[in-house]
């Protein structure tokens, strides 16, 4: 009988140890999941910032290029006003011919 009680006590202790080990494993897995979630969040935010910075940089480059082209056009118009007027007249004439309804 003492032997049966000893086996029952050992089984109970083994089950408690297994239960404790399982709880610890689940807790550890949960903590790793939370860490992974936080790392993913940081990576996503960083990627978003990188995309935003790249887009802003491209916008600024485009704005600078447009400003440079506008300055060149203004300079050309000041240097050669008759040629500019002729080009404007020709463009207007062509546009009126293309858009006129017959």
TrEMBL record:
Stretches with biased composition (Low complexity): 1-12
Region (Disordered): 1-21
Protein name: Membrane-anchored ribosome-binding protein, inhibits growth in stationary phase, ElaB/YqjD/DUF883 family
Organism for this UniProt entry: Thalassolituus maritimus
